[in-house]
Design a protein that fits this description.
globular, Rossmann fold, alpha/beta
Length: 275
C-alpha cells in the first residue's frame, strides 16, 4: 500500500541484481511511494543479473557504473543531473569479497583481494558520497543509506574480511554525515540488517546456519528483505529528517540479545538428542 512518502523525490539505487536483492525491493517500494529513480550496478552485474527487467517494470533508466571507478561515477551522476537536476536519496547496496568467493579463510587472506573487498564494499561508499558532495547534487535534507551487518561490530567467524569492510562503511557514514549535514543538511546512515538470503549474502560459508541462529536469537525473528525495504523508505522520507550518522539495527532485536530460550533449547537438543 502506498502512502506517497516519496512523492516528488528523485534518487539513485546502487546494487540491485535480482529479485532476491534488498536493493531490488527498495527500488520497487520507492517507485510505489511516488519516487523517480535511476538504477545502477557494475557492468558485470548487469550482465549476470536481471536489472534490465526491473528498469522496464518501473520505467527507470539503468546506467552501468562501477562504483570504484571515478569516470563511471561521474558519468552516472551526469545522467542523474540531466534527468533530475538534484536528487533526494541514494542507496548503497554494494558488497563483494573475493576471499569469500574463493573460500580463503580469515587467517590466510589474499591481500590484493582484501584491498578489493574494502574498495568495492566500503571505499565506494566514500567515493560516491564525496562525488555527490563535490558536485553539490543532493537537495537539502536529502538521505544517503548504506546497508551493513552486525559483523562490523561483533565477531562472526565465517564473515571473513567483509567484517572490516562493513566496519569501514559504518565509520564513513558517521564521518561524512557530519560534513554533509553541515553543508547541505544531508543525512547519512547505515542500516544493519538481519542476515538475508540474497544472492550475495548466500555466498558466505555456513550462511544457512547463521540465518537460523539469528532467527532463534531474535525476539521478533529476522527482518526480511521486504521489511528492510520498508525501513529504508522511511529513512528516505521526511519523517527522519533529524536522523543522521547512525548505524540503525534492523534485526528483530538480535543486536540487543545475549542468548534466548530458543537457542538454549536448540543447544540442549544437540547435547541430548531425542531418540
Amino acid at each position: 500500500m502506498s502512502n506517497n512518502l516519496l512523492q516528488g523525490k528523485k534518487g539513485i539505487i546502487f546494487g540491485a541484481l535480482d529479485d532476491m536483492s534488498i536493493a531490488w525491493k527498495v527500488a520497487e517500494r520507492a517507485h510505489e511511494e511516488g519516487a523517480e529513480i535511476i538504477l545502477t550496478n557494475a557492468p558485470v552485474a548487469l550482465r549476470m543479473g536481471k536489472i534490465a527487467d526491473l528498469g522496464e517494470k518501473l520505467g527507470a533508466e539503468v546506467v552501468p557504473a562501477d562504483a570504484t571507478n571515478m569516470d563511471d561515477l561521474n558519468a552516472l551522476l551526469d545522467r542523474a543531473e540531466a534527468q533530475f537536476g538534484k536528487i533526494d536519496f541514494v542507496l548503497h547496496s554494494i558488497g563483494m569479497s573475493l576471499n569469500v568467493r574463493k573460500k580463503r579463510v580469515y587467517t590466510d587472506l589474499n591481500y590484493d583481494w582484501y584491498h578489493k573487498s574494502l574498495d568495492i564494499s566500503a571505499l565506494s561508499f566514500h567515493r560516491m558520497i564525496q562525488t555527490l558532495y563535490e558536485r553539490d547534487l543532493m537537495n537539502e535534507w536529502g538521505s544517503i543509506v548504506g546497508l551493513s551487518y552486525i559483523a562490523a561490530q561483533r565477531t562472526f567467524s565465517k564473515y571473513n574480511d567483509m567484517a572490516e569492510a562493513k566496519a569501514l562503511l559504518e565509520s564513513i557514514a558517521r564521518s561524512f554525515g557530519y560534513h554533509y549535514g553541515k553543508k547541505r543538511q544531508v543525512r547519512v546512515n547505515t542500516i544493519s540488517q538481519s542476515p538475508t538470503p540474497t544472492t550475495a549474502g548466500s555466498g558466505v560459508k555456513d550462511f544457512d546456519q547463521m540465518l537460523k541462529f539469528a532467527e532463534l536469537g531474535s525476539p521478533l525473528g529476522n527482518a526480511t528483505a521486504d521489511e528492510c525495504a520498508d525501513y529504508t523508505i522511511m529513512m528516505f522520507s521526511d519523517y527522519t529528517r533529524k536522523v543522521t550518522m547512525q548505524n540503525l539495527f534492523h534485526d528483530g532485536g538480535f543486536s540487543s540479545m545475549g542468548i534466548s530460550e530458543e537457542l538454549l533449547d536448540a543447544f540442549r537438543e544437540t547435547q541430548h538428542p531425542k531418540s
